[in-house]
Predict the structure.
Amino acid sequence: MASTLHHAHNGRPAEAAHPSCRHEDAADRVRASVDAVYRTDSRRVLATLIRLLGDFDLAEEALHEAFTAAIEQWARHGMPTNPRAWLISTGRFKAIDGLRRRARGDAALPALALHLATSTGGAEACDDKRIEDDQLRLIFTCCHPALAPEAQVAMTLREVCGLTTEEIARAFLTKPPTVAQRIVRAKAKIRAVRIPYEVPSEADLPDRLDAVLRVVYLVFNEGYAASSGESLTRHDLSSEAIRLGRLLIALLPEPEALGLLALMLLHDSRRAARTSPTGELVLLDEQDRSRWHQDQIAEGTALVTRALASRRIGPYTLQAAIAAVHAQAPHAAATDWAQIVALYDLLMQADPSPVVELNRAVAVAMRDGPLAGLLLIDAILARGDLGRYHLVYAARADLCRRLGRTAEACASYAQALRLTQQEPERRFLTRRLAELSDQAG
Amino acid sequence: MQYLVLIYVDERALSERERQACYAASAQLAHAIKASGQILAANPLHPTTMATTVRMRDGKRFVTDGPFAETREQLGG
């Protein structure tokens, strides 16, 4: 079955058999270039193959076969001038061949193979504009409202970003079989209810764009702060989210799409400064601001300015504006916390949530002192919200620490430690706890 | 008098074998009552994985984490 084949190989080119040792260097070189093309182009090729073949599993199988063929043929004949177009047409022919071979037992297949062989698949299927559109078709299909929100995220990461089932499971604290099942079901549903492979019409766009933006936001968030594992950030996820954000604004320069891209660029600009050479997390106060990525800050600031000028200001634009205030401060003490609190007030109106409320409380603490922030945080906890969210305890612990309430601070740090699964965060919290215990002792 | 009969079961409650046995028994019953003219039509429903859940517009945002520097980078954790 196609999906089994796909999961077993994960769509990646199979190991090339080396005919002899003499050819090993050349074979390695070809393999390296096939790998490079795989990294940059495999998702684009897949998106177009899904359009040409009309089926996810068929397209994934064709993608796999095209890359396997590339290893053999590029070694013999050299790299084609347009590898992407070569892969698309090779994948398409392999799929048609496969259908014809399997056709013996199934009367419907030859008709499909004939249809595929005669339908558009020539040069016009491979021009850059159409390939970009195919990527958008793929994103909108993966984020279709008929699919459950968790399925939307899993499908986008799998099909659009090319992450493995294991990587998706790790990113969202679930088991690989659960992710695999979500994907299988989502594909079955796409087929059963005939979800069209298209960018929605203008009338449907605002609603549909919401779902897509939320998925991109979640993918970015996992890259900005990994929910588990060895590293604080996941560059693969944040850069994929930024790539998708760029694709979206090229098609739809909607204010919230601009706001989301701005938000991602502004947060990502600090990535290098947020982790020490030994992998420890570095707080805003201590970050070397000369390592903040100025190109991303300039681009993000320009985008957020554009989004704000639209006067249709949504939650992503407001979050981007908050990030822009941080980016503009030449040093930590110069941060305009009053401005940040004012923006959080607006965000609480646009998109109220306990997580937003918690971050507003931190900004209030920075403006008015730790006690003011602590009262707000305790009110959130008293309401029964965020009880399993480690950051609420970490924030509470730090404010208690600043107030000299050592015992309370220790208790909250311990609580935060129990709830986090990310190593740099664990080490940070453990360090803070040890410092406080030393003082207390 | 005509009746519409809806049968609900937990899809996961039956093993594959029990499911097959249930299908066989109910198909037999359906044939029997069709032959005697007591049944007009019978159709299976789609499994729940094919269902579309309609969410309220206001309820559509579930609480999610987000990239907020205030908690993560100002106070840390």
Remarks:
- The mean pLDDT of chain A is 88.
- Chain A touches chain B through 60 residues (CB under 8 Å).
- Chain A has 21 helices and two strands.
- The two ends of chain A are 64 Å apart (CA to CA).
